[in-house]
């Protein structure tokens, strides 16, 4: 679980929580608070009703986790199949991925398409109307936030970098590298496995992005095994802004930037500093 933002001004201040790595998939069910033993009977509420509610909550949580795993599996299936540049048939998706979850196929396809767009920079399109065959194409019009990152304009790594910058900003300007990998694993990106889009993700994040000054990596003292924390690098501050990253996060959530008041106020202040003219140099004395 990623750390909450230090300001604690909003319950959803972190970029994604639980299974919220996909828009539309709810996060973890909050635990009961306010009573030292939630399992005790509540006056006026039959014990059987409480147990039924617990069983329903457990079933819903299991269904959400299963849906998240299916979305990740479908994304990987589409990325691998796309390498051959052959249309991906709906029947193949149903057979190899969806299997016994045909009733939620439309939801799976929608969530997978959103993840492909925002994380990998691909658009999932149907080859022809009612053809039941799909292909992945590069997004021809990258988001405004993507265009700001000139070093990665038009490449899928832009989405990955924006996600990491968002994680850092929403978690108080720094985040342990291990927490980043905990989150990226939910997207099917692992530090020890070669990725079909990103190649070597570990090298890309901890070496390439750091060398190009999009990120800074600092060792966290007294950690065993050794862990590092990631922060924005100077190039990220020059090529994008807190407001653009916050808008990216809000778009992922289908929300507005103002839904995170503390982060929004900070981003707004940053925007004002960026447009404020620099003080003119004093005129030379004659």
Automatic annotation (TrEMBL):
Matching PROSITE patterns: MAGE (PS50838)
Domain of life: Eukaryota
InterPro entries: MAGE, MAGE_WH1, MAGE_WH2, MHD_dom
Domain MAGE: 67-267
Spans annotated as Disordered: 1-47
A Pfam family reported for this protein in Swiss-Prot or TrEMBL: MAGE
Protein name in the entry: Mage-g2
């Amino acid at each position: 679980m990623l750390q909450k933002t230090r300001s604690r001004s909003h319950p959803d201040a972190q970029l994604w929580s639980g299974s919220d790595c996909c828009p539309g998939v709810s996060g973890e069910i909050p635990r009961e608070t306010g009573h030292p033993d939630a399992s005790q009977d509540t006056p006026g509420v039959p014990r059987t009703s409480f147990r039924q509610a617990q069983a329903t909550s457990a079933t819903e949580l299991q269904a959400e986790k299963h849906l998240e795993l299916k979305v990740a599996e479908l994304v990987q299936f589409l990325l691998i199949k796309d390498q051959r540049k052959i249309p991906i048939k709906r029947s193949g998706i149903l057979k190899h991925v969806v299997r016994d979850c045909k009733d939620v196929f439309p939801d799976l396809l929608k969530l997978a398409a959103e993840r492909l767009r925002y994380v990998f920079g691909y658009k999932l399109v149907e080859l022809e109307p009612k053809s039941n065959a799909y292909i992945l194409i590069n997004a021809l019009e990258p988001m405004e936030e993507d265009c700001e990152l000139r070093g990665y304009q038009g490449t899928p790594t832009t989405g990955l970098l924006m996600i990491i910058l968002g994680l850092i900003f929403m978690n108080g300007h720094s985040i342990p590298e291990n927490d980043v990998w905990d989150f990226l694993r939910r997207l099917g990106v692992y530090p020890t496995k070669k990725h079909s889009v990103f190649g070597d993700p570990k090298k890309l994040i901890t070496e390439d992005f750091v060398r190009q000054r999009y990120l800074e990596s600092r060792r966290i003292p007294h950690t065993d095994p050794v862990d590092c924390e990631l922060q924005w690098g100077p190039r990220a501050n020059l090529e994008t802004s807190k407001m653009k990253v916050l808008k990216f996060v809000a778009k992922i959530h289908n929300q507005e930037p103002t839904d995170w008041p503390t982060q929004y106020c900070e981003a707004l202040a940053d925007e004002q500093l960026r447009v404020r003219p620099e003080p003119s140099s004093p005129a030379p004395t004659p």
